[in-house]
Amino acid sequence: MAAVKTLNPKAEVARAQAALAVNISAARGLQDVLRTNLGPKGTMKMLVSGAGDIKLTKDGNVLLHEMQIQHPTASLIAKVATAQDDITGDGTTSNVLIIGELLKQADLYISEGLHPRIITEGFEAAKEKALQFLEQIKVSKEMDRQTLIDVARTSLHTKVHAELADVLTEAVVDSILAIKKQDEPIDLFMVEIMEMKHKSETDTSLIRGLVLDHGARHPDMKKRVEDAYILTCNVSLEYEKTEVNSGFFYKSAEEREKLVKAERKFIEDRVNKIIELKKKVCGDSNKGFVVINQKGIDPFSLDALAKEGIVALRRAKRRNMERLTLACGGVALNSLDDLNADCLGRAGLVYEYTLGEEKFTFIEKCNNPRSVTLLIKGPNKHTLTQIKDAIRDGLRAVKNAIDDGEILTLAGPSLESKRLLMRYSLFPRCEYFNSHIIFCFCEVNINSTVLAQNSGFDLQETLVKVQAEHAESGQLVGVDLNTGEPMVAAEAGIWDNYCVKKQLLHSCTVIATNILLVDEIMRAGMSSLKG
Amino acid sequence: MAGGAREVVTLQLGHFAGFVGAHWWNQQDAALVRPADGKEPPGELCPDVLYRTGRTVHGQDTYTPRLILMDLKGSLSSLKQEGGLYRDKQLDAAIAWQGKLTTHKEELCPKNPYLQTLGSAEGVLSSDGVWRVKSIPNGKEGSIRVWSDFLRVHLHPRSICMIQKYNHDGETGRLEAFGQGESILKEPGYLEELEDRLHFYVEECDYLQGFQILCDLHDGFSGVAAKTAELLQDEYSGRGVIAWGLLPAPYSLGEPQKNIYRLLNTAFGLVHLAAHSSLVCPLSLGGSLGLRPEPPVTFPHLHYDATLPFHCSAILATALDTITVPYRLRSSPVSMVHLADMLSFSGKKVVTAGATIPFPSGQSLPDTLVQLGGATPWIPLSACGDPSGACCFAQSVVLRGLDRACHTSQLTPGTPLPSPLHACATGEEVLAQYLQQQQPRALSSSHLLLTPCKVAPPYPHLFSSLSQQGLFLDGPPTRAAAESIPVFGALCSSSSLHQTLGGLARELTKLDLRRWASFMAAGVEQDDLEEMLQELYSLAQCYQDGSGLMD
Fold first, then answer.
1. pTM above 0.80?
2. Domain Misato Segment II tubulin-like, which positions (chain B) (predicted)?
3. Domain locations along chain A
4. Which of B55, B192, B203 lies closest to A314 in CB terms?
5. Taking 90 as the threshold, does the pLDDT of residue B141 lie above it?
6. Which residues of A are known to be catalytic?
7. For FRET with B501, which of A130, A260, B131, B234 sits at 20 to 30 Å CA-CA?
8. CATH placement of domain A209-239+257-368
9. Which of B312, B281, B324 minimizes the C-alpha distance to B497?
10. Which chain B residues are within 8 Å of A54, Cβ to Cβ?
11. Each residue of A414-436: pLDDT tens digit?
């Protein structure tokens, strides 16, 4: 009888073996859900809500966010796994699988009478060894385009189908290379991701410039201008009540009109300033002039600008202001006082594209853009979301590779339709070491077996083949998921992030240890704010 | 402002806000339909203020609410997140994957009968050009669990924004505390989502006048609303932001934790909204904001079940539909900013609402008003206690749905006038004079409209003793439900708020907050709490009545 029962008779308590059983079953339940996802040959999952909304995903991170996990232990594991994604952008599924596998192995030993504490020490020792191993096999390479493409491909092939993955791979790597500055950390924020519900998913492309999801609001403005000056500003061009809390005081309607006119004049002056500048820089040439304003522009001002052949976009998003100046050059102005030709950016081509009620403005052909746009296309919402998730992960993978400067060839779950592989272990399944048990780091075991399973190969046969190959060549060997034959991962261009794997080893050991050491589960008291 | 409507963007944050919003949009939708008998409606209200015109990819024109709505995972039931208007069945089926596919289907939510009629008539009106909606039979109203069960308006695909992080029902993962709500909009993902949607609606407005936020005050959505108001203030300065803080009426004493949380959320919500918006108005059918519940307010001629959110929200939506009239008028509207300025001078940003639903309409307006005598003519809807005896600083009053013939007294010339009201030549004058009598020191503005409030189904059947036009019947209740009613509504900044807000602050000061550590764990710190209490006290101080220095 647990002490808590005397205090609260409603409390539920599970102890020792029972507690462990609860936890292990939760971990394995989660593992069962996610195991079919792993690798490029994994199964896509379609989630259909009660109302018929579709979500299509293969990404462990997305799945865990979508599921309503009620079991506290399962939700703990899910949180760790998704935290891994937050930090490194990858490895959610592997995390869940490894925790599940570690606990499964531990369960065997515990049922033989071993104390959980000894097993956790084994975990710890194994982690150390695995990290050492990781240090050994990591490869420091110069991150040229080809290497980065390999890394991105390894990541993307596990998320979307091969044809699309190839399209995305190039786009993702080129976008990072465009925004990358020497010796400065990469700011992924400078890659705008824009969705367009149009055509098919393989039309997704990289725009070396910016795409805004709004257009000019005046019928007379040009839909296409070439060789344009871009004025980026954050200045109100609409008549509105002054921001200070003040009212108009007037005696008659005429007086009110007069006041309103005076206020309008203020705005007109601003518009005229822009028009003057346009005349100055463009002269009689054919050059275009585009104003992109973060604040509003009212119809009167639009009209005045349109008459002068200026294209004006209002209410640009705040986050696009910085990107605009990076893409086109120039300075974003907060007041028109210091307006001069130096503040203007340039773009070779600005055009508008209308899709139903939505308008898109493309700003392209910029000189040396430091901010670019990945334009996602797809026939429907769920495809767009799927690609967006994949692109996020791809960007992270490339960024990690550049930041680390080191990559691994132990592509866990990976790659390319033709030559898909998995490395096989260096550790034997488990070994006794000074009376401690060291579990093998079963990223190896579990991942390769699951991968082989997902691709429809015989488990034992594949494992034996891979082991033999490894013994022979002394190199890191994986499985080709198309043929089931062993192959050398590095030669196939399968590279994975070093930091992801390192993080993975750390977090799954800690969680598995924690869960294993739980010997009592209590549920009592107020049910609130949990989970 | 010349040309074009002065657009308003509506935000609905939370589930009860969804309920009120669904009723509100149903009422707006009913008002759009021209009556079949050829009588042109007066057209005093401009629907373009709230609605936008759009066009689907297939070139079909649409007219949808300019609305952003946030709710939690699992609250939509049978409503599709993207709505039905912009769908393309063929394209939706396309899947970008050639490998294996497993499908996990949730059980299909059964559609309510009203939604079925909406679904079958998708995009097409029935032959006579009028939507026919079955009314919801009495007694079955308990079956309405979520607001989408009775929403009969098509929404734009950008309207609905789901918060996947928290669950709508179930025991775990609830959005319970102010801090949790605030932190949702600190996440870049949700923030970007909200900004994008706002941008979509705002960018196409020529003369945006502001935003109205309908939000739940009792749960974590008060935090979401506070953050949203802050964002709007930052991004669109100079625009009006009017926040309607909604509280579902009954709260049981049985769950002390819920009650305390409600109190904390409400207080935090009110203070933060007051700081970041132009005007805040709590709306509730409950008797008080405090810890001890008071019986819900009662209306003569109106029977409702205070435990049903379906009923409560209908009443609040009707009141809202009336008191928001000033900034939705077609001709010479009072803009949100002006309305807020008028009511909120010297920091009195919190106002109370009241309404008479339905307004008695059997006799002429002067007669009715005289009969009311000195009592406050409307029922308070802000859970701020009894307004009688309280002093009112400023008010904006709207009376709608009375026949023009009833506006002035129809006494034969020569008869002695029972009151000065009977001498007025127009209804507007009657109303203005009445307000002047009632609150001689208050700054009043009044509007008199012919357009009644629509209460056609799926509005619940609350008015048993009214005829179809909303007139009182002496005989037994008829079968036919009333379809429109006259309503008298008011927004006022009254000195009763001094008591209410002060009381709220005192109650919170007495609480030992260490017992509710979980509230603090969700991102609110002790200092925040003390600061909030200080602000609440000083807010209450603004409403100090010059004459009554009782405490």
1. yes
2. 6-118
3. 3-140+407-523, 142-199+373-404, 209-239+257-368
4. B203
5. no
6. 59, 92-93, 393
7. B234
8. 3.50.7.10
9. B281
10. 92
11. 322 222 222 322 233 333 333 33
